[in-house]
Amino acid sequence: MKRPLEEAPAMDGSSIAAPASARTLDQLVARFAQRAARHDRSGEIALDNLADLRDAGLLALALPPASGGQGIGVRQITEIVGRIAQGDPSTALILAMQYLQSGAIARSPAWSDTVRGELFASIVRDGALINALRVEPELGTPARGGLPATSVRHDGTAWRLNGRKIFSTGSTALKWGVVWSRTEEDTPRVGQVLVPLDLPGVRIEQSWNQMGMRATGSHTVIFENVALPDHYLVNLAPPGSAPDEAVALATWHAVVVGALYDGVARAARDWLIGFLHARAPSNLGAPLSTLPRFHTLLGEIDALLLTNSALIDHALRREEAGEQAGTDAGLVKQVVTENAIAAVGKAVAAIGNPGLSQDNPLERHYRDVLCGRIHTPQGDSALASAGRAALAG
């Protein structure tokens, strides 16, 4: 039976987690943290975590209330994802994509009521997961430009989808893929195609074997003559005419992903505090927590994380005020992730070998937090975009 989050009024008129839901998140984080090492070592998606999120009613929160959700906005998404990341960031990333994609579909006029209704019903009824499938082997991330090789063509009876997508977070656990494609027409159109991933012709190649975020299951999804009805071709348009909602989604994505890696750093901080209290070398005769150098270390880490909190709140306030964040969102993601990496790196360097032992979670936190540099927008793109905007102004 689903246990939806209680609602409380938020500054923007939406709902935020009430104390009861905060307790639910605390319980989930503790449970996920206990499982995280096992899923990291196996490289398998934490299906038990996803089932817990479904049972707690969290997977549908970004849907409109009329469709069975709570219509949560970017602040609530950021808070929940950042908190879940303290337990298991791989699970948090799958949840983040669930919120960002389902929320974007709810706001977009390009999606028909029929398709939206089918999709939303499966999320509420079955806990179905959705994510965008965009990155390709030859092209890389679409954020850097170019047209997809993945294509749809009409064979006289149906549209046929062919191509492959790499780094597909949640792959084997997904029910739906929003696939970035182009049409095989004289003048190609580019956009989103909705694909039920259990259709004939869809297969998953086990290709994800990364250093960090190992339990995201970001494998390669391959499409071979997958038949799709017309209404699953959602918003194909001439190249370069991206709809406004794509810009908004990119802004939300940058802030939410930054908050996720901030959550990893906070988990590392909390573990370090426990370690310093528990570790009492015989030559010292007292816990490491009594040494001034570790007081300074925690102060440095907390300064980095305080900066993160301020930056994330800055971006969220701008969004809530209806301001166009522009390059700010990319800069927030860049600085927040670098601060998170620096915070965990300080912890590892300070305690030596225990920080790199797989017997301790700090080693996993360090591998996971480094992945923040890979997520769009990547650092060079965010900084270059901000620089161009400054010079153009």
TrEMBL record:
Sequence ranges assigned to domain Acyl-CoA oxidase/dehydrogenase middle in this UniProt record: 136-226
Record keywords, A-Z: Flavoprotein, Oxidoreductase
Top-level division of the source organism's lineage: Bacteria
Keyword Flavoprotein set for record: yes
Boundaries of every Acyl-CoA dehydrogenase/oxidase N-terminal domain copy: 31-99
GO molecular function terms attached to this record: flavin adenine dinucleotide binding; oxidoreductase activity, acting on the CH-CH group of donors
One family name in Pfam for this protein: Acyl-CoA_dh_2
Segments forming domain Acyl-CoA dehydrogenase C-terminal: 258-376
Protein name: Acyl-CoA/acyl-ACP dehydrogenase
Naturally occurring in which organism (per UniProt): Gluconacetobacter takamatsuzukensis
Taxonomic classification: Bacteria, Pseudomonadati, Pseudomonadota, Alphaproteobacteria, Acetobacterales
